[in-house]
């Protein structure tokens, strides 16, 4: 299924049809569900980002959260944290979902408290789900 989606994406670009926000987020979600975040990922993301910009599509928190979640699911916390920081650099503030996804990943690595502190410092109320993640 993923190969077909990748091929369709390539065909769209070759024909000058720029995928919209929903298409690109769906492709990212497919990549995450397939647990195949590393395979040619740098090239793929560069290509998608280029198409988003060329087509006037701006990624939002849903796109970033989907991507971050994919890396967390595969225990690539360095990449998840990189994209969380890039999200901020692009002017999008990570939300409760972003922080909870990253915190859940760091819980497996005993570093969740760092994420909680950053979350509070940014003025985001952790809520029950964040504290539950810490306890579990």
Automatic annotation (TrEMBL):
Methyltransferase recorded as keyword: no
InterPro entries assigned to the protein according to its UniProt record, in alphabetical order: PPR_rpt
Gene Ontology MF, one: mRNA binding
Pfam families: PPR_2
Domain of life per record: Eukaryota
Keyword annotations from UniProtKB, A to Z: Repeat
Each PPR repeat, start to end: 60-94
Family per similarity comment: Belongs to the PPR family. P subfamily.
Protein name: Pentatricopeptide repeat-containing protein
